[in-house]
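A brief tutorial aside. Many learners find it easier to grasp structure tokens once they have seen a single protein encoded end to end. The record that follows does exactly this for Vesicle transport through interaction with t-SNAREs homolog 1A. Read the sequence first, then the structure, and try to relate runs of similar tokens to stretches of the chain.
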Amino acid sequence: MSSDFEGYEQDFAVLTAEITSKIARVPRLPPDEKKQMVANVEKQLEEAKELLEQMDLEVREIPPQSRGMYSNRMRSYKQEMGKLETDFKRSRIAYSDEVRNELLGDDGNSSENQRAHLLDNTERLERSSRRLEAGYQIAVETEQIGQEMLENLSHDREKIQRARERLRETDANLGKSSRVLTGMLRRIIQNRILVVVLAIILVVTILMAVTFSVRRH
């Protein structure tokens, strides 16, 4: 399981490094290349999100006692993803302003005002996104705690069931031992009775022989 997570982790590291490099190059590219680069970055961001989802699923399958380290790494990767999206939004805003100026011929002051307004809206969206992310993280942690509790209860139930089975086996073995001992005691008593009967028959036979012998004389 951890090997799958580490494979996704390596893919995520390579992909985010490429995205970071491309975002930094966007402001310096000609308009045509910028448009293509923006579309490329959008596609790679979606791929990075899918990798995060796969990593999150892998973490949920890891046993609770080993999950903490991977959960911390996931939080770090989600923060990194959020930063990449923020940087990309700012790059897109600058790109959109440039395109708008080329199409509409806006002057520098108007462009700066619009950019400031858009940046302010972006910061508000980022704050809302962070609050949503914090709420999501709390929900995930709560789910993990509940899952751990259910797993602990399941382990306890299995232990109780195993103890009951051992008690049943012990009772069955005691019953078998009791039956064996009873049979042995019965055979011992029967053997003793047989010995006594044989002894009586032997004594009677001897007495009869002696009696017949005396009468003859």
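Self-check: The chain is about 95% helix and 0% strand. If you spotted this yourself, you are ready for the next section.
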